Amino acid sequence: MSNTYQAHEIRKLADLVAVLAKHERPVLLVEGIRALPDEDRAAVVGMGRLLAERLPGCVFRSGNAEGSDTAFAEGVTAVNPTRMEYVVTHGGMGRKWRHADGRSVALDRLAHVGEGPVGEYTVRSSPDLKGLVEAYRVRGAKGPVGAKAAYLLRDTLKVIGAPEAGLLPATAGIFYVNEANPLAGGTGHTIRVCMERQVPVVVHAIWQTWEFAKH
Prior knowledge:
8 helices; Rossmann fold; globular; alpha/beta
């Protein structure tokens, strides 16, 4: 696995705590691929719980996709559901997976999202997907192309935030990735946006070495 997108300053939980401590209200992305192996789900839930316990001043954010996102969120909400933020494409997305006491921000409630910073960083991070963003600017989320664009823009929104929605920028990200192709799909796009914004990224090859009970 390439280390070019990983935060070399975060190798231990203590390192992550130090990075987040520099921010008054840190926001930690906790997410990853949908195809989370069954044998790893308990570890992802456990990491969500550990982070929520050890980082009481942190807000946790995901895109609420079934798989890694929901597993991390399960651990976080078991400790304190009010510190969970779900960034979704529309209000009904994954409603059954969201904790009622968590906060949700929907992409379709933001005006001109395709033209502003969200659209800009989406194209900068994934230039080959410029056509999808342009289609969204014209037609919104209508049709399969618009729907795919909405998910990409949502992924960007998770990282850069939106002042008009009270959504702070992400401080760091904890990911479960596809080890064969870590920068593929929506998770890969999100990581590329993190790289553009210099948001530290820690993937499961690193955090799975953390001993949950000894920090």
